[in-house]
Design brief:
Elements lengths: L1 H24 L6 E2 L3 H4 L24 E9 L7 E14 L3 H13 L9 H10 L1 H4 L3 E3 L3 E6 L7 E3 L1 H4 L6 E4 L4 H18 L12 E3 L6 H11 L12 E10 L2 E10 L26 E10 L6 E2 L12 E2 L1 E4 L2 E5 L4 E5 L19 H6 L1 H26 L5 H30 L1 H18 L2
């Protein structure tokens, strides 16, 4: 029963966490109605670079690239192959459906009435009975944004680090002009063309406000959009991403830096970082949401990176295959794939006591010395295991780490010696033995209250 309860709690915690992550990343939200996705989702966003290629708004909050750094050994660099698969979602503006626009108008009207109306049909009836009262009721088209994922098995950039290096074999790079990135953009452009086939796609800007009569039925609503759409100002997406790669030799290994860059441009004036404006009524959105990359390294291994922070600690793994750029990374050893992660999570299982050395009060009352000596034997077994573990870890520890681990073992040894001193005292002095037994009887009695 206790096991089932523990599993249920774990499942509940996982569900709460998943829903929280969905809310702040937008992973499960589609479409976004009545608001700008940039104002709703805050994790995993890639904004655009400015016109000069600088990161004028780059900070812990506003970033335009995400990636990872990893090392490949000099002996494996010639054969190494890297495949980078970008992930992310773009949002594009759509005309609201008739139902969505009606619901927005009804909500607006109800803010002005003492008794709210239950449906749009009731609003139409009230308008017919008192048209003067509702003649000024108008509402602009509410913003609606649908999302489209860029992730695809065909959407990737492939390169061999050795082929990017200069003649000296010291440095190399891959930028947006590279053939692989050009092909990547061809697929992004195909996505944008696919959006244009969506009959709800926001093709022409509509500045006029709709009236109750414009929303009488689907025909009058479509007529309103066709009549008021600015045909001289078409709306189109300007999405652009690329994979930026840098390779640099450092002593006997090569540092490979891979990043997904959002190089999109705002349509209206080619100025950038308009995506940071809290505007609910934007015709286009250039921000890439839920961004990330998966990096597959073939015919080579990641050279472990030692984390200085844990260098002198024997309890934690000091190595990891890569370091994230504006993110964290996860690693799948089976596929040898590194994945970026904007919202890393750590699961701390509920800690429980080690019952291997636990004893009962009744045993300490009935046979105190035998029970205490058995505990002492278990303590000896434990410290022997720790000494063996120290010998096993010795070669990987720094001098400071060895000193720290040896100090903790020595402290446990002193605890054993104090425990043995207690046993000797109880065994030597009958009055102490009697007191010890009475004490445990008191503990046993109070534990039953």
């Amino acid at each position: 029963m206790a096991g089932n309860l523990s599993v249920a709690r774990e499942k509940l915690a996982e569900r709460i966490l998943a829903e929280f992550k969905d809310k702040i990343t937008g992973a499960a939200n589609e479409p976004v109605v009545g608001d700008n996705p940039e104002n709703k989702f805050f994790v995993g966003k890639l904004l655009t670079k400015d016109g000069d290629g600088n990161s004028g708004y780059s900070s812990d909050v506003f970033i335009e690239s995400v990636g990872a750094d990893f090392y490949v050994s000099q002996s494996e660099i010639e054969n190494a192959e890297v495949k980078v698969s970008p992930r992310g979602e773009f949002y594009y503006r759509c005309y609201p459906t008739l139902e969505q626009q009606r619901a927005a108008m009804l909500e607006e009207v109800n803010t002005m009435l003492d008794t709210p109306l239950a449906s749009f049909e009731e609003l139409c009836k009230a308008d017919a009975e008192s048209s003067e009262k509702f003649k000024k009721v108008k509402i602009k088209l509410i913003p609606v944004y649908k999302k489209i994922s860029i992730a695809s098995s065909n959407l990737s950039v492939f390169f061999r680090p050795a082929e990017l290096l200069d003649e000296q074999g010291v440095y190399g790079s891959l930028d947006e002009q590279n053939r692989e990135n050009v092909q990547l953009m061809d697929q992004i452009n195909a996505l944008q063309e696919r959006i244009a086939q969506d009959e709800d796609c926001y093709l022409y800007i509509v500045n006029e406000s709709s009236t109750i009569k414009d929303l009488q039925n689907l025909e009058t609503y479509r007529d309103f959009i066709a009549r008021c759409g600015k045909r001289d100002v078409s709306v189109h997406q300007n999405w652009k991403i690329y994979i930026n790669v840098k390779v640099k030799r450092i002593k006997d290994k090569f540092l490979v830096s891979v990043a997904l860059v959002n190089d999109s441009r705002v349509q209206s004036n080619d100025r950038t970082h308009q995506s940071n404006k809290r505007d609910k009524d934007k015709p286009t959105i250039e921000t890439l949401f839920n961004s990330g990359i998966d990096v597959s390294l073939q015919r080579a291994k990641y050279v472990p990176i030692e984390l200085d922070y844990f260098l002198d600690d024997y309890k934690y793994d000091k190595e990891q295959p890569a370091v994230g750029l504006n993110c964290s990374v996860t690693y799948d050893p089976e596929s040898n794939i590194i994945s970026t992660e904007h919202l890393p999570t750590y699961v701390q299982k509920r800690l429980i006591t080690n019952d291997r050395l636990a004893v009962k009060f009744q045993d300490l009352i009935d046979k105190p010395l035998e029970t205490l000596k058995n505990i002492r034997k278990e303590m000896d077994t434990e410290i022997n295991a720790w000494n063996a573990y120290y010998d096993q870890k010795y070669a990987t520890l720094t001098p400071k780490g060895r000193e720290k681990m040896k100090g903790e073992i020595a402290e446990f040894q002193r605890e054993i010696e104090r425990f043995q001193m207690g046993i000797d005292t109880i065994e030597t002095y009958p009055i102490v033995l009697k007191s010890f037994v009475l004490m445990n009887k008191a503990f046993l009695a109070t534990s039953k209250i």
